[in-house]
Amino acid sequence: MKRLLTVGLLSAFAVVGSAFTANAVEVAKSGNTFHIAACGPVAGHAARCHARIVSDASGIVKSDSRVHPPAPSGYSPANLRSAYNITATGSSSTIVAIVDAYGYTNAESDLGVYRSQFGLPTCTTANGCFKKLNQNGVQGSYPAQNTGWAQESALDLDMASAMCPNCKIYLIEATSSSYANLATAENTAAAQGAHAISNSYGGSESGTTSYESAYNHAGIAVTASSGDDGYSAGPQFPATSPHVTAVGGTHLVTASNSRGWTETVWTDAGSGCSTVYAKPTWQHDATCKKRMEADVSAVADPNTGVAVYGPVNSRSSGWLVFGGTSVAAPLIAGVYGSNGGAVNYGSDPYNNTGALYDVTSGSNGSCGSSYYCTAKVGYDGPTGLGTPNGSTAF
């Protein structure tokens, strides 16, 4: 459920740093949890980040930094590793790269707070674990900060760290959210030797064919979030590239079963049948003749969100709770990193379905109960083949 607030929101707009073009903020509600988009709408050949931030009913971001001492809410790395049975921690020879738009001034220090809070190894420029580059591969001359995209970057860095705490983490900052600049950053990430590259953004497929080659890197796991506007929004690029692992979203809660957790479809996770891109040879769903999204999934519902330390506004950082398929894409990239083995585009989960938790309940829209928007036994659009049960499928 979404509603548009237009009264008295100048302060909210300033606090959350969203890129909306008017004095309004779109507030959604999942269960009893309100949340807003970190990034505003875009037009033309550009992408919108898919992060959702838990807020109050007016769209004001809720930060645990107001609590003294700060007490993070949301799922921790230990929770996420338990939910997805991830025991591997990765290797310092493995690079997980994050591609996002615009700058993030305090990326390294904010990441340090997150990792210290949860007992993850130190990851800094000085010890060789962390590296920040502009889209041309330079350590410097970074783009100006956009708070919404910086919040997206914080989420991505933290989720990759949670799943692969011993991996190197690189942040590649595109000059803007144009497909052209993001494609340049994507190629830079691949050139740095990344084992996995996470992309938590998307937009219309129209006019994207000239950028698709940037997501085609043999031997590299490229993940892309499926979107946060449900089935009705249609397929999103780059998730519909046949060379990526498209990542959908779930609602994740604890349960009294042998796993200890259970998942259903997050109602706003994206899915759809591409109108542009050919179906990869390993995908065999019944009626979509072109590329179908998603391939796999992970937690994305803000109502079962994750803890992140990042920008609360342009001036300060704090503990926030995030959802969106922007959670799921870097989480899956981190799982690829924790495995560290050979990658054949997005085919590996299809060859290892026994190492996934099948999500069989829920829907992300209206499609006549088709697998395009409704969870089924086996493959379905909102959650793909399911969620990680260990790292074997990645």
Second rung of CATH, namely the architecture: 3-Layer(aba) Sandwich
Strand content: 15-25%
Number of helices: 6
Care to count the β-strands?
A: 20
- Level of helix content? 10-25%
Unreliable parts: 1-23
CATH homologous superfamily? Peptidase S8/S53 domain
The H/E string reads EHEEEEHEHEHEHEEEEEEEEEEHEE
Q: How many domains, in number, for the residues?
A: 1
**Morphology call:** globular
| Biggest pleated-sheet summary | 8 strands, mixed
The level 1 CATH classification is Alpha Beta
Mean pLDDT: 93
- What is the terminal separation in angstroms? 34 Å
In terms of quaternary structure, the protein is single chain
* C-alpha-based Rg, rounded: 19 Å
Can you offer a commentary on this structure?
With 394 residues, the protein is α/β, with parallel strands linked by helices. The chain has one domain: Rossmann fold (3-Layer(aba) Sandwich). It is built from six helices and 20 strands. The protein has helices at 10-16, 77-83, 107-117, 147-163, 179-191, 325-339, and strands at residues 2-5, 25-30, 33-37, 48-49, 52-55, 95-101, 130-134, 168-174, 196-199, 201-202, 221-225, 245-254, 261-265, 272-278, 290-293, 296-299, 306-311, 317-323, 356-357, 387-388. The strands form five sheets. Strands 6, 7, 8, 9, 11, 12, 13 and 16 form an eight-stranded mixed β-sheet that branches. A six-stranded antiparallel β-sheet has the order 1-2-3-5-18-17. Strand 7, helix 4 and strand 8 form a beta-alpha-beta unit. The longest helix is centred in the middle third of the chain and has 17 residues, at 147-163. It is globular, with a radius of gyration of 19 Å. The model is unreliable at 1-23 (pLDDT under 50).
